[in-house]
Design goal:
Elements lengths: L4 E7 L8 E6 L2 E5 L27 E3 L5 H4 L2 H6 L5 E4 L1 H18 L13 H9 L1 E3 L6 E2 L4 E7 L7 E7 L2 E5 L22 E4 L11 H18 L2 E5 L5 H14 L8 E3 L2 H12 L6 H8 L10 E3 L3 H5 L8 E5 L9 H8 L6 E4 L8 H6 L4 E4 L2 E4 L3 E4 L9 H9 L7 E4 L4 H15 L3 E2 L6 E4 L2
Parallel strand pairs: 3-4, 4-5, 5-6, 10-11, 11-20, 12-15, 12-16, 13-14, 13-15, 16-19, 20-21
Antiparallel strand pairs: 1-2, 1-22, 2-3, 7-8, 8-9, 9-10, 17-18
Helix pairs in contact: 3-7, 12-13
Amino acid sequence: MPLKAKVTFCAGTESVTGANFLFEADGKKILIDCGLEQSNKLAEEANWKPFAYNPAEIDILFITHAHIDHIGLIPKLIHEGFKGIIYSTLPTHEITKFMLDDTAGILSKDREHNLRDIYSEQNLKRTFELWKNLEYYQKFKITENLSVEFLNAGHILGSAMVKFHYSDSRIVFTGDLGNSPSSLLPDTDNITDATYLVMESVYGDRIHEDRNTRKDKLEDAIEDNVKRKGVLLIPTFSLERSQELLFEIGTMIEGNRIPLIPILFDSPLAIKLTTVFRKYTSYFKKEVRDMAATGDDLFMFPGLQSTLETDQSKMIIRIPLPKVIIAGSGMSSGGRILHHEQAYLPDPKSTLLLTGYQGRGTLGRLIEDGAKTVHISGQEVTVRARVVTISGYSGHKDSDGLIKFVEATSDSLKKVFVVMGEPKSSMFLVQKLRDNLGINAYPPKTGETVELDF
């Protein structure tokens, strides 16, 4: 009897966020990620629609990494009947606790939805009662014909690709693929034997600056801000980007490459997550592990002030210029960065430094696209500050990196499903894979189910 399997693209298609894929094989129903769809609203309507499957019938949920667009709907999944097992790496498990708690706090401000049932203490507690950890390359059997292992995605601390071995075939869900080489993490693992790939395409149509260019531009932005006697605002993602920036700025200061000025780290979530990074240095690449082994604190340096409490954050405005403020969120869609942008965007001596992807409809995207006025907390704010973008700090592979990743396994591939990208980005990558590698690549639609041919 021939083996059969299918994939349903429940969410995470035609969009960058909301990863949620259903893989069915050998009588098992398996989810890969269960994330929030995110844009400019606290709670996108799509998040509160019924799932495309019965959560009570799901056997296993694999989590690729702890960004909220990959984990944010786990409490909803549990609320609606999921009783299976959740698997991730150990750092992802620990980071998820902070991320879900933070999201519960943010979503509690939403008045349009009854979120108490979904993000209740009981559902959060149950989430981690169902959770188990896997190390990279720790293969285990799900059924007689089906086994699985995690590979290193190189995206954020603990991030993984999920590789299923189904008889003689391999089906790989990439999650998000890291922009290797990283300051902190090992490079993304190569895959050379995939039969099917379900892969991200966030930057499928764009090329990043190289690592040396990005460091030079960061150094230039800090030095220029000192000359302007202004404020350098860096909206940043609490997870990975913040820690990378701290590591690189610390290296610059210790190497006397930039002046010693106040660096305000104003993100409670990022401050808490940095403690997880200090704990799991064994997941860093070798040269960074060696630095940590000497006893150095990789995320502390002269001039750095972490402002965990609200009162500390409010005092930042009194700190003399020039200064640097690193605060969440990375797309200016919430968090403490909004208060600082409200105060400093009208100042032509200030600089707003964008270091990552800015989603459609977000404040960050509006500013990146050249808006001269924006609305923050109901107030119209004029944008007179200089706006600088450094694409090299993205945590995602660019178009060339994605193509190179696929090329390594092109001889074994039957098909590539391109997901987790805006339609323009996904279609560009699909066309490049077809034209450059002769790969059967395809951008599935939301809700589409595809039978896998073995």
